[in-house]
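agent: user wants the structure for LIM zinc-binding domain-containing protein from Ascaris lumbricoides. delegating to structure tool.
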Amino acid sequence: MVKELCHRCSKPVYPTDKVGPLKDSTYFHQGCFKCYICGTRLALKTYCNNRNDTDDREIYCNGHVPVAGPHDLPPTRNGHPCGSGTSNGGFRRDAGLEDMKIAHAIKATQVSKPYPKIKHEGARYVVDYDAQTRLELIHRRDEDKLYEAFDENKKREYDQFERETKEEWERALADFARKYQKGQVGNKNKEELIRHLTIKRDKKLETLHMQRKERERLQTAELVDRQAKEMLELFKQARVDCSSGDSNGGGPPSYPTTPPPPQPPMCSKRDVYTNTSVFETIDQVAISVAQSEVTTFTELIRTLTASARSDVEKARAIYRWITVKNLNVMQFDSDLDSNTPMGLLRGIKYGTESYHVLFKRLCSYAGLHCVVIKGFSKSAGYQPGFRFDDNRFRNTWNAVCLDGSWRFVQCNWGARHLVNAKEGSRSTPKGDSLRYEYDDHYFMTDPEEFIYEFFPQESEWQLLPRPITLRQFESLPFVRSLFFRYGLSFTDPLLQAVVQADKSGAATVSINMCNEALDSLIFHYNLK
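agent: tool returned. relaying tokens verbatim.
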């Protein structure tokens, strides 16, 4: 039996993933049923055809469907005007135009279409759509088993906790009853005992909950790490097949099949881009996709990266999608189905998957090498002079391999800015010291700037030519992303986080800035 082929990617379509037939007898995969120009997901009620060219069997959104100009010729089919006939003598109705040799002049005055046609990136995707979808389904089943195990362990631990708590209360109350009969204690002592047992129970339950969540996060991270390796192995094999089948051998350098060792990037972020406007199209697609519904990571990544022309743009699309989704405030139904759009992010609901784990997962679906880095950060609550001797300021972030270099990405901080305590107490509810806002600084951050806020456990992941020690990290001045956004730097490279005043109570801090910032920045300070 001959299967129908997707008009977009020329791959077989199956009943569970088929859209069509359309009016022109074409079929599409659900993931390929999107605007030919911008990649926006379409539905049977929202897609448009090009009415100016009946040979064009592509689909468009309402904003990108080609529109006829005032001088456009009538739609043609096979080189002949639609609906035009020939006389008995065989003369065409527009023969006069051709005889006068002005047809080319009319064609030259046609209004150009607002958007040039581009070949859809999905057709050139290195990994077969069906193969990637099949692997994702296997991964989804593994996740189902893991979350089922989480629920079973949670119920078992809670039942055991309730039994132990009940036995403890019964022993304590029985001992109190004996003392009460002897007149050693009174009713006031009973109230104190119940309050003590309640506090002890709540603390024990909180500790049990934290230990279980930490264990679940580790297991989820291990699962995602294994699945990411399997997905990248699929890309590796596909790249090998593509390179062996490419007889030209003159294309751009291929993406590395194995991740390179951690080394300082070959160029700075400013050498890659200086203005986020270069990502305008990528960002708009990410924002649009974040507001739409997708049911698989395969479909999500192919939609996000449909117009991406480089590894940097792929990573950018993932970064913007995560920061737009605002995962920290998402609401989930209690009976979340893994096969629904929100089911993709069920790890967020369970508290087992965070920004850095999700970013690594999505990078693997785009064929990008990504690692999770653990260490310390000067996060909320940090004050200059603090020592990192405990786990208060533990943090995690990513490094992704782009154009042959490792680049830092901190989706969590990119999606939210920290508000100082004074501002938070005045303008935000109690306990909410975070305001959510996209920050470009934490995408492809240069190591020389990243080290001011993040210190990895493994020194090679500082990506600095000369790694620093933890004590040196503690001594670095405490600055945030705005400092680097305005192009500021310290005149003294040895400036410490804590500056001692002289005998007169004065202290000097010198800052370099560009000429454009001289008239637009105002500085203020607080003395400690």
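agent: one observation worth passing along. Residues 129-243 form one domain.
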